[in-house]
């Protein structure tokens, strides 16, 4: 009966329209729309990858091997299970264009293919000729960026290793390009038999072979995959099939989407501040109505249910608007998004991300409206006078506190479950909670400080008026500092993280990073290679090490992925080296190094930090597949490995006899003066055509290019959060219009000019904005440091440009919002305002 009566009362109240709830609806709708849009785009990309999985992969399935070809047993299995098989060799090399004054060189990612390539899809070429025709004999196709870098035109020649190739077309579309992952150089495609004549694929050369399989329509993909993994996974074979044709891309999209949704939750939290403020203002305006209901015999439960149903109905409206915007926006922007995506996307309306966004919206609305609604219980029948609700207790009854705790735990738990990243979710939740607490304390602090300073501002009326207004309860200092501060905190954290990540990659390169990485150096070439560098005064340092690649397949005789699931060391192959004695720059943190003449069972020195993450201990055994051969060794020591210097760093180092007989090459880093780099490259590449040189700055530029896209995506999410905060700020300014009108009327009556009153309004807005900006800067710096230190494992320095922009943004935002709602109070006539007040 009570609920039915509450529903009728709520329906009557809602007949008054949405006055006072526009900001409420906007905040809730914007937060939900941001989350729904990100989820919809992610679902569209995932659907596109699933739909085009075979085309992206270039076949129904792929078997990949590191630094070796498939053996007879593996080839026989492929022939028995597939209708067609296509072999691909993929590796890095140097494309060389001989010139009169030397030679022009460019790093490239070479793909050597057979007659069957591509099994699915079509290679795009300009001019539009068949791939077979373009790469016949010593023909080749090349991406435009490499052509321009080398100054080539169609019909010109270039060299790979010991073989000359003729450029016959520009490579415009590589159908299986997304499955290839991140490459350091533009693509060249040649025939396998032409590559054989180049001498580039030799003993120990770093290359991958991929065998694409056309399995036929009636083949059950799952059973074939299980059979292949059971037979060959311990031999270092990596299986990929059309169910996830670009696993690296899919994983990146999933993680980026999860991160952006967490950023969206931050925006929803900012909107929650506005929702709470709107509900609090609404309940305050209904004090007389609530008191009247209590006078007529309404129970506390009936009153609470009445307004709970009202706010619930409005929340559903706001969430529905957000879901509609979040579903429609990706569809409307689909052409623009598809142009910027290197992968297919199937844009449509997907229920799962919309349901996720709706759940977030419902829980956020419940969490931020429960406490203001609970205050209706404090209105008694006898409190039919102005501002009665302002003197109620701040903490509601324990049952409401408990319900809020349950809702918060449910929100965090669902966010962690949906995102699949518990650690990042907890960090985000802790950061938001910490920022909110800091901002609440800051709002209370600025009110208390203003209350103490205002009386001392004799002779400075503008300052005194501004500080007195901030100290009072009507200016809404808490709402301003909370809403704007939290939005600026997210933006500050994103800016600091992005700046430090870029700085970690490129900022210190001249001091710590090598000029070049040289790979594929054969053992018999090392004396000549070192002789060229040792006599060069421009070379300050040269580091070299044997280089093999291996896949950790088992740990303590348990499948590696079961022992340490999801760890990056186990994802694909890793560099393996050997050393008889402890390298000069190595510091052991546990265990001992083997004797120089050790020839017993294989021993391993493992990277200490990664060992802790994987749960490894001294004495554990690792089975490593190197070129199809299993080597089981015992961990004898842990050592520090610093990857931040961009130098040589190996997760795994073994004793020399453990890898005796395994074909391998050498890797080397050269530290040289910038002006000498070009000559060093010309001399070494001319003497050893098979060597591949990777210029560290070029690699850094490629990584920075990827990071710029990531930074743009996160900045958009942070901007949505800031926009929500600005909406809340406008709501707070609009709510204080009545108080400012009365204040302006009093001041005009006492002789104040409009200019002075406007200056007072602007000053209080600027002070609140500066406070919000300073606190947001502190919270953003703390959040940026935590993510940089604990998640990204990089150093941290304050990016002062971003930091100062945050403070300036806070001042500007509050000024705009304050001045926007200042004209009405200034235009009001004092007599009319004061008579109405009486």
TrEMBL record:
Topology within the bilayer: Multi-pass membrane protein
Residues of the MacB-like periplasmic core domain: 25-199
UniProt main location, coarse: membrane
Any one annotated GO CC term: plasma membrane
Record's keyword annotation contains Membrane: yes
InterPro entries named in the record: ABC3_permease_C, MacB_PCD, Membrane_comp_ABC_pdt
Keywords annotated in UniProt: Cell membrane, Membrane, Transmembrane, Transmembrane helix
Record-annotated membrane-spanning stretches: 256-283, 304-337, 357-374, 400-418, 424-450, 766-787, 799-823
Stretches assigned to the ABC3 transporter permease C-terminal domain: 262-375, 719-825
Protein's UniProt name: FtsX-like permease family protein
């Amino acid at each position: 009966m009570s609920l039915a009566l509450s529903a009728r009362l709520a329906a009557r109240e809602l007949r008054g329209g949405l006055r006072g709830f526009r900001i409420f609806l906007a905040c809730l709708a914007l937060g939900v729309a941001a989350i729904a849009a990100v989820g919809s785009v992610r679902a569209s990309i995932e659907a596109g990858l699933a739909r085009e999985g075979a085309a992206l992969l270039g076949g129904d399935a792929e078997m990949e091997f590191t630094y070796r070809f498939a053996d007879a047993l593996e080839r026989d299995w492929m022939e028995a299970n597939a209708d067609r098989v296509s072999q691909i060799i993929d590796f890095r090399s140097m494309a060389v264009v001989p010139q009169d004054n030397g030679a022009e060189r460019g790093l490239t990612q070479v793909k050597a293919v057979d007659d069957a390539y591509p099994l699915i899809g079509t290679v795009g070429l300009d001019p539009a000729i068949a791939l077979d025709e373009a790469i016949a004999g010593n023909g080749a196709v090349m991406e435009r960026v490499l052509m321009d870098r080398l100054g080539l035109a169609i019909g010109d020649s270039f060299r790979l290793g010991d073989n000359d190739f003729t450029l016959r077309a520009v490579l415009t579309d590589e159908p299986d390009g997304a499955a290839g992952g991140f490459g350091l150089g533009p693509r060249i495609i040649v025939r396998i038999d032409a590559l054989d004549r180049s001498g580039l694929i030799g003993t120990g050369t770093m290359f991958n072979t991929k065998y694409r399989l056309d399995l036929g329509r009636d083949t059950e993909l799952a059973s074939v995959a299980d059979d292949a993994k059971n037979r060959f996974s311990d031999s270092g074979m990596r299986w990929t099939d059309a169910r996830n044709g670009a696993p690296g891309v899919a994983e990146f999209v999933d993680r980026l989407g999860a991160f952006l949704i967490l950023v969206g939750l931050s925006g929803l939290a900012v909107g929650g501040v506005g929702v709470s403020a709107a509900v609090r203002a609404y309940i305050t305006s209904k004090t007389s109505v609530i008191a009247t209901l209590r006078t007529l015999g309404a129970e506390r439960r009936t009153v609470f249910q009445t307004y709970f149903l009202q706010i619930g109905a409005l929340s559903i409206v706001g969430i529905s608007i957000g879901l509609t915007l979040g579903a429609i926006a990706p569809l409307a922007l689909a052409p623009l998004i598809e142009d910027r995506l290197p992968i297919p996307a199937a844009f449509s309306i997907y229920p799962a991300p919309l349901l996720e966004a709706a759940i977030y919206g419902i829980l956020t609305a419940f969490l931020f409206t429960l406490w203001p609604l609970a205050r209706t219980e404090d209105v008694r029948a006898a409190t039919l006078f102005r501002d009665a609700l302002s003197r109620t207790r701040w903490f509601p009854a324990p049952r409401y506190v408990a319900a809020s705790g349950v809702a918060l735990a449910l929100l965090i738990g669902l966010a962690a479950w949906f995102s699949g990243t518990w650690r990042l979710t907890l960090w985000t939740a802790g950061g938001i909670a910490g920022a909110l607490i800091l901002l609440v304390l800051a709002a209370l602090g600025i009110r208390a400080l203003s209350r103490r300073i205002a009386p001392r501002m004799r002779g400075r009326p503008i300052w005194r008026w501004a500080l007195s207004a901030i100290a009072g309860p009507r200016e809404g200092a808490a709402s301003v500092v909370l809403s704007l501060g939290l939005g600026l905190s997210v933006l500050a954290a994103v800016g600091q993280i992005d700046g430090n990540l870029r700085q970690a990659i490129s900022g210190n390169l001249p001091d710590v990073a090598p000029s070049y990485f040289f790979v594929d150096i054969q053992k018999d070439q090392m004396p000549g290679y070192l002789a060229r560098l040792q006599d060069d005064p421009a070379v300050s340092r040269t580091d070299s090490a044997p280089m093999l690649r291996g896949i950790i397949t088992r740990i303590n005789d348990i499948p590696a992925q079961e022992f340490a699931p999801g760890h990056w060391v186990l994802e694909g192959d890793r560099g393996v080296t050997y050393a008889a004695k402890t390298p000069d720059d190595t510091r052991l943190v546990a265990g001992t190094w083997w004797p120089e003449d050790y020839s017993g069972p294989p021993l391993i020195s493992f990277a200490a930090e990664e060992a802790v993450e994987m749960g490894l201990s001294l004495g554990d055994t690792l089975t490593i597949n190197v070129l199809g051969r299993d080597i089981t060794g015992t961990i004898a020591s842990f050592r520090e490995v610093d990857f931040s210097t961009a130098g040589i760093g190996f997760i795994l180092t073994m004793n020399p006899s453990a890898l005796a007989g395994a074909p391998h090459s050498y890797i080397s880093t050269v530290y040289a003066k910038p002006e000498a780099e070009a000559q060093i490259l010309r001399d070494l590449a001319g003497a050893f055509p098979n060597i591949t040189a990777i210029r560290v700055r070029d690699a850094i530029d490629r990584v920075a290019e990827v990071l710029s896209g990531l930074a743009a995506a996160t900045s958009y999410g942070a901007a949505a959060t800031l926009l929500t905060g600005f909406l809340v700020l406008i709501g707070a300014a609009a709510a204080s219009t009545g108080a400012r009108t009365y204040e302006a009327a009093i001041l005009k009556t006492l002789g104040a000019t409009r200019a002075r009153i406007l200056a007072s309004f602007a000053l209080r807005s600027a002070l609140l904005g500066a406070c919000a900006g300073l606190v947001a800067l502190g919270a953003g710096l703390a959040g940026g440091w935590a993510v940089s230190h604990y998640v990204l494992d990089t150093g941290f320095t304050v990016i002062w440009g971003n930091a100062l922009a945050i403070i300036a943004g806070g001042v500007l935002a509050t000024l705009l919002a304050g001045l926007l709602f200042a004209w009405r109070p200034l235009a009001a006539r004092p007599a009319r305002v004061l008579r109405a007040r009486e």
